[in-house]
Amino acid sequence: MSTNPGRILDLFAGPGGWSQGLRTLGLRDVGIEIDPAVCATRAAAGHATIRADVAAHSTAPLRGKVSGLIASPPCQTFSAAGLRAGNTDLPLCHQVLDDLTRGHDTRTTARAACTDPRSLLVVEPLRYALDLRPEWIALEEVPAVLPLFEHTAWSLTAAGYSTWTGVLNAADFGLAQTRRRAFLIASRTRPALPPEPTHADGGTAADLFGEGLPTWRTMGDVLGCPPGEVITRGNHTTGGSRFPTTGPSWALTGRARSWKLRSGQGWKSDTGRSAGITGRFERVISEPSFTITGTANRCKWVGDGVEERNLTLAEAALLQSFPGDYPFQGSRTSQFQQIGNAVPPLLGAAVLRPLVSSALEVAA
């Protein structure tokens, strides 16, 4: 049965990272999200949303109506930023994936046995995929979840999908951030392949097959001061921010161009852009940033060895490739969490472009 190419379902939709990526491709999704502040952000940004618990939502009303499935299950139980209770729950997650593949839903029993019930959310994409049989699937999570994505891919392959799993670095796709995330890509109609990088660490030289790749973008590239409509919140003496809608706060001018961004985390946020900066929690503005997380409000700009101020909400959004004036809702803490937990729209678009190409051809 043919499905409408525009019907794309986004599980654990968040503030709209995947949605913004789709929007740049001329497509829309419908997200399922339970957090009221996040739902408010999606509404303000114009993204369709069903407020519901993904794990409790029935797939029956969606059968035959979904051509694309996107999911970024909550990563707290597997993330290096948390207690990693998900590691303890891995055997249960693998068991439920096996059970779902065989047509048995054992989620309720397994959830009661989990150290952290949120760990089991990682199996939800397979439940939806096996029941809805979308044309294509794109999943994203922290790298620690890759073994579960590989297990999910095995189940999808048995169901007739071509699959690819691996870890992508956001800096290879135009972000000024060395964010590494695991992805699962699957398709019933074409080979599932990872997106082609658009940038490279240090760049690559041109060859007989075309021009080389430009070097990774830096925080300075993204947080420069391009022309645009200026928005003022407060003033310089009282701590307010002034920035163009397409750029950062006023403070990243003049001597601030030699500033460094220091992570407020006491944990290893990523593996760095190369062996030379592995594990570094401080980057100069002429480098990509480390991974922007939900606690990015603790990050500090450091000038001449002195902590000058915190990273602003607009700057965090820009480093995630959201517009600087994206309408995040909720408390300030919630807004930073939404930014850090989201799929960067630029990376989402890179992953989705090959999968939705048939829909783009229909639209054209």
Give the domain tally.
2
Query: With helices defined by DSSP (H or I, 4 residues minimum), what is the helix count?
Result: 11
Helix content: 25-40%
Instruction: Tell me what portion of residues adopts beta-strand conformation.
Output: 15-25%
Radius of gyration: 21 Å
Mean pLDDT: 85
Major beta-sheet overview = 7 strands, mixed
- What strand line-up does the widest sheet have? 3-2-1-4-5-7-6
| CATH class category of the largest domain | Alpha Beta
CATH superfamily membership of the largest domain: Vaccinia Virus protein VP39
CATH fold description of the largest domain: Rossmann fold
Distance between the termini: 23 Å
Overall morphology: globular
> What string gives the helices and strands in order?
EHEHEEHHHEHEEHEEEEEEHHHH
**Structural class, please?**
alpha/beta
Uncertain residue ranges: 225-241, 266-278
Q: What topology emerges from the helices and strands here?
A:
Elements: E1 8-11, H1 17-24, E2 30-33, H2 36-45, E3 48-51, E4 68-71, H3 85-101, H4 107-113, H5 124-132, E5 136-141, H6 146-158, E6 162-169, E7 180-187, H7 219-222, E8 230-233, E9 241-244, E10 260-262, E11 282-284, E12 300-303, E13 306-310, H8 313-319, H9 332-341, H10 345-355, H11 357-363
Helix pairs in contact: 1-10, 3-4, 3-6
